[in-house]
Amino acid sequence: MSPSAYVFPIVSSTSIFKADIFKGKVLFCTGGGSGICRGMTEAIMRHGANATIVGRKLDRLTQAAKELSEATGQVCVPAQADVRQPNTLKEAVTKTIEKFGRIDFVICGAAGNFLAPISAISENAFKTVMEIDTIGTFNTIKATIAHVRASKGSYIHVSATLHYNGTPYQVHVSAAKAGIDALSAVLAVEEGPHGVRSNVIAPGPISGTEGMDRLGPKAPTTRQPGYPAGREGDVKDIANAAVFLFSDAASYITGQVLPVDGGSEHLREGFLPYPQSVLDPASVANMIKGKL
C-alpha cells in the first residue's frame, strides 16, 4: 500500500490569535462583499475591528455587511463604489470616517479576470483589468493614505502568483498583478517613515471561490496540480495571513510579497494543453468557463 501524503490542516485565526488584537481598529476593504476579501474582512472583524466593505453591487454589499456584523458582533458598513472612479472611493472613505472616525487597515482586493490569449483579448478588455486591479489599487491608496498615516496603519494588496512565470491566457492579469506588487513596494518605502506598512498577499488556487469556479477547467482534466501542502487553498488560509500581517507580530514586515499557495507555484502546470492552446485557441474553447 502506497503511503499517503500529509494534508496540512485548515485552522481559524481565532484559535491562534487573541480575540481583541484589533479592538478599536477599522478596516477598509475593496472587493469585500465576496470571496477571499470577504473572508479576510470576517477574520479581521472577529478580532475586534469594525469594517467598511466596498464594491459596485450595493445589494450584495448590504447583505454581506449584515451577515458579517451578525457573525462577528462588530459593525460592518457597505459602501458602493467603483475603484476605477476615484470620487466614489473618496465618498466611501468619507462615509467610513463619519461612521468610525478612522481607518487603520486597508485591503486592496477589487479584481477581475477571464481566460484569453493575447491574440484574442481586446484592447478594451486588457485595459479594463488594468483599471480594476492596478489603477484601482492606486486609487484606493490615494483615497485612504492620509487616514492610514494618521493611524500608523497598514495595507494589504491582493495579488497572484501568475506573473512569476509566463502563464498562457493570463497576460492581462499577470501585467496587472505585477503592477500591484510594484505599487506595494514603493508604498512601503515612501510611507514607512510615516509609520505605514504595505505588503502583498499572493493567493494560489483557493477552493470554493467565484474566481476558482470560473477560471478552473470547464470539464474534468487529467492534468492535476501539485500541492506540497496536500490540498487546495481555503479562504481561511488567506484570512490567517491577513490577520498576521495586520497584527503587531508583523510590525517589522513591510514591502514584502507573501505567496499563500501551499507551495503549489513550484509545481504549477496549466490545465490547458500546451502548445495546443496557443497554436489553436479554438480547439480548447470548450474547456474554458465564462468571464469573471
UniProtKB/TrEMBL annotation:
Residues 208-231 are annotated as: Disordered. It is an enzyme of class 1 (oxidoreductase). It comes from the Eukaryota. This is 2,4-dienoyl-CoA reductase [(3E)-enoyl-CoA-producing]. The lineage of its organism: Eukaryota, Fungi, Dikarya, Basidiomycota, Agaricomycotina. It comes from Crucibulum laeve. Its EC number is 1.3.1.124. It catalyses: a (2E,4Z)-dienoyl-CoA + NADPH + H(+) = a 4,5-saturated-(3E)-enoyl-CoA + NADP(+); a (2E,4E)-dienoyl-CoA + NADPH + H(+) = a 4,5-saturated-(3E)-enoyl-CoA + NADP(+). Keywords: NADP, Oxidoreductase. GO terms for biological process: fatty acid catabolic process. The keyword Lyase does not apply. It holds the Pfam family adh_short_C2.
